[in-house]
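worker-3 :: picked Prephenate dehydrogenase
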Amino acid sequence: MSARTTGQVRVVGTGLLGTSIGLGLTSLDVDVVLDDVSPSTLALAVDYGAGRRAAEGDAPAIVVVAVPPDVVARVVAEELARFPEALVTDVASVKAGPLAALQAAGAPVARYLGSHPMAGRERSGPIAARADLFLGRPWVIAPHEASTAEQAVLLESLAFELGAIPVRLPAERHDDAVAVVSHAPQLVSSLLAARLVDAPDHATDLAGQGLRDTTRIAASDPALWVQILSANAARVLPVLSDLRDDLDALLGALADPAAPGAQRALADVLAAGNDGVARIPGKHGVDLRTTTLTVLIDDRPGQLARLLTEIGELGVNLEDMRLEHSPGAPIGIVEVSVLPEAAGGLEADLERRGWRVA
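worker-3 :: tokens ->
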């Protein structure tokens, strides 16, 4: 496959995002130049095949700055000065702050266009990088008054190259959005997971998929998230303030569940949660109502693959799937989500083939 991105791409910062960008582009024969203040981190990224070291005469068409949020503006300014013909972008999770800092410093922002791939992992560093990290994920491009449509198209091509879905969104609107869908959820997940620190073993032994789902991102890097949250604090604060108000109302209802209106208050919270979840796009970008079947499988090699193969043979398309293990038992619990009209037939067909459907 030939790349649509032409010219050299320089990636500054070889952590998870920078190395993943390098891996994806080098797999398409794009000339990727890597740089990092840490020699060992740079060496790892080069060894993994994410690109090559900088050399005399390098002339990148695009510079991607993938450094921690607190140094983004400074590094972008340095790259703008060093490569006066290049378009410089960054992949930080906050966009308004770096743009304002560059404007205040008098940097040539006409060649700067911020962006943000909505992708990541709980692990960090080049060792966690993946060429397919951005596959199917939104990649925000944040145009501003001095940027051009041609620059946006250039970054959209790069995003498409990496399998992402480009979305144009001004910096302020981007930061408002991620406060709700990313930054506040990180804190809520961390607060919930922190309740487990002093929980007795008999409690954590009962943990199921619900707890894993709600605490998964609590394993994220604290040092990185301190920077992200500090940079977007003004927008995260009102989200958490509203959440606090909702919690106060919930505490009042739980303090006396038999009081008039308490049951209604609890029901309203749960119903609002249903409505919120329904707004999260499904795999086709729309709200799809699905039915979930729970299938028990033996915890041994090949069983999950056989189940998925047989569902395909039955002509049923999976909308989603979750896997967990039964504590203390050699059983895997597979939750498969399908369209409601397919659920009844699939359950019967799987049972006829010997599967245990709970």
